[in-house]
Amino acid sequence: MKLSNAVLFCLVFFLVLASCDSNRVFDTYKSVPSSWHKDSIVSFKVNPPDSTNAYNLFVNLRNTNDYKFNNLFLIVEMVFPYGKTIKDTLEYRMADPSGKLLGTGITGVKENKLWYKEQVVFKETGEYIVNIQHAMRENGKVNGVTELDGITDVGFRIEKPIKK
């Protein structure tokens, strides 16, 4: 009987903890195989809740100590419901000058919440598609990194702006 009470308490605790994120509108991760191939695109289908309010958009990443670069280049493409496409090449810092990986987490996995766009109004109703692909290159080399190690999950998040 005591074991089931402990399990029930843990379940309620985690449900309460997860529901505290009142700014979250969309937040999903997709796992990456043992390495992220340069041609592999991680896609998210999103149906924004309305076409009047502004939202902040983030790319979320989980990485391990196997990630050996100080930065990360991503190509993020947003396909609108009626066909318009916006494609951005973005650079993010992943480690401090000493080489220590940035992000949150006390284990060997770090979580990074990376700004993509802010104050976005989804004026078109319908399904948006967000495609994320890495575009890493080693210094002095023309060809990109074919297999990027250390990225375990790629996510996309939409949230309501924090009211000041």
TrEMBL record:
<feature type="signal peptide">
    <location>
        <begin position="1"/>
        <end position="18"/>
    </location>
</feature>
<dbReference type="InterPro" id="IPR020018">
    <property type="entry name" value="Motility-assoc_lipoprot_GldH"/>
</dbReference>
<protein>
    <submittedName>
        <fullName>Gliding motility lipoprotein GldH</fullName>
    </submittedName>
</protein>
<keyword id="KW-0732">Signal</keyword>
<keyword id="KW-0449">Lipoprotein</keyword>
<dbReference type="Pfam" id="PF14109">
    <property type="entry name" value="GldH_lipo"/>
</dbReference>
